[in-house]
Design a protein that fits this description.
It contains 17 helices and 2 strands. The protein has helices at residues 9-35, 37-44, 48-74, 79-96, 103-117, 120-131, 137-166, 168-189, 209-217, 222-251, 255-287, 293-300, 302-316, 320-334, 338-349, 354-384, 389-424; strands at residues 3-4, 192-193. A two-stranded parallel sheet has the order 1-2.
């Protein structure tokens, strides 16, 4: 763990690989709860709302509370050390969930995971922004966000088999171990880059947190972009959390088979979609002469709308084959917005507000999006009842994805107006 002034070309790709592995552990530990909702409900006699609280609020609210302090620390402290601490903490907390004795001990474990994982995204993204310039930033972030899909796939594919063979407790333990093994490698081999070396110089100072938040939200389009991701997270996280239960309830799948479908849709196809759109975004911007945040936000606005359409078709389909096909499409679109939208956010934030920007996104997306999405579906499921309750809940959550697309259009317009005013000033 040393400080690097000019990261070599090959080494930066190694850093990307290690950070992607760390974020994969983040994805596994975050997603594993969705696979075990059915056995948890059976063992502890929990309602849909209680399960939704475990999957959403118990994780999302502590995550949100910790996000801003972590973001403040990311912009001031050694990020490699911070990332190592967060990785070890969330992995250990996940493994300890396997020892839970009921709702409250599980909620405490999920809360600990949420607090620690709040440090993952802002730290990793801040590091990547200093290893990759704007010409490769969306690609790098898109690859890094592949980890969300890979982690999701591993959680649902391997986890489905572990739950079926050894029970839900061992699924939690198995999910936590990889991060504990990776933490020392990250600490000793990833160097701290010089902050802001990939960007044009900007004025900055040691401002108080309130002042820095004011500076952040004064950036053109930032409020709309953060609101957009929050809405999209409500729909996508809620849907992905309850998909295995939906397939079991509405179409009679076994848990391992349901886990396999979700792993392919949100893991493999979601990863392909995220990588392809991130690469395509960089290619389009290169042809336009450089990164254009307004144009990138405009193109990205279509992605959550396509996700919602595919999701609504999936939960309304009478045939299991049609439902699975639509879920594959929804999964492919679900992670595709990450690369371009986060590239917009870290670019308009600038190098000295990046950690705070990503933490603000994560706080909002988790407090409202993750916290609301899973709980909302559980509540609707309880109200509707029967085998189609979860389907109605997922359909309701998809409306938030459409709202996210509209907000990205508004972000694009705000950035364009600012650029036009600044250009003519």
């Amino acid at each position: 763990m040393t400080t690097a002034s000019a990261p070599p070309g090959i080494y930066r790709w190694y850093v990307l690989a290690v950070l992607t592995l760390a974020q994969t552990c983040h994805g596994i530990d975050r997603a594993i709860i969705g696979l075990v909702l059915k056995p948890l409900g059976a063992e502890f006699s929990m309602s849909g709302a209680q399960l939704g609280l475990l999957a959403g609020v118990a994780y999302g609210v502590p995550f949100a509370i910790a996000a801003i302090p972590f973001g403040y620390a990311v912009d001031r402290m050694n990020r490699t050390a911070l990332m190592t601490f967060a990785l070890a903490a969330w992995s250990g907390a996940t493994a300890l969930c396997g020892a839970a004795t009921g709702f409250w001990t599980l909620a405490a474990g999920r809360a600990a995971v949420g607090v620690a994982e709040a440090g993952g995204s802002p730290t990793g993204m801040s590091l990547l922004a200093d290893y990759f310039g704007t010409d490769r930033r969306a690609t790098a972030i898109g690859i890094w966000y592949l980890s969300a899909g890979v982690g999701f796939a591993l959680a649902f594919f391997a986890g489905g088999w572990i739950v079926a063979e050894h029970g839900w407790r061992w699924a939690f333990i198995a999910a936590g171990v990889p991060g504990l093994l990776l933490a020392p490698l990250l600490y000793f081999t990833v160097r701290e880059p010089v902050r802001g070396r990939q960007d044009a110089p900007q004025e900055h100072g040691d401002h108080a947190l309130r002042a820095r938040l004011g500076m952040l939200f004064a950036r053109p389009g930032m409020t709309y972009a953060i609101a957009a991701i929050t809405c999209i997270a409500t729909g996508i996280y809620g849907m992905s959390t309850w998909l295995a239960t939906f397939l079991v309830d509405s179409h009679g799948f076994g848990l391992p088979q349901a886990g396999l479908v979700v792993a392919i849709a949100y893991g493999i196809l979601g990863s392909v979609g995220g990588l392809t759109v991130g690469w395509g975004s960089d290619r389009i911007n290169a042809r336009r002469g450089g990164f254009d945040p307004a144009h990138t936000a405009l193109l990205a606005s279509a992605i959550p709308v396509l996700t919602a359409i595919a999701g609504l078709l999936a939960v309304s389909a009478g045939s299991a084959t049609v439902a699975v096909a639509c879920l594959m499409a929804a999964g492919m679109f679900s992670a595709s917005y990450n690369g371009p939208v986060y590239a917009v956010i870290v670019t308009i934030a600038g190098p000295h507000l990046r950690g705070l920007a990503v933490s603000a996104v994560q706080m909002s997306a988790n407090l409202i999006g993750v916290g609301l999405g899973a709980w909302l579906i559980g509540m609707v499921s309880d109200q509707v009842g029967g085998k189609d309750g979860v389907a109605w809940g997922i359909g309701t959550a998809m409306l938030f994805c459409i709202a996210g697309g509209v907000l990205l259009l508004l972000a694009s317009r705000a950035i364009r107006r600012h650029d036009a005013t600044h250009h003519h000033a």
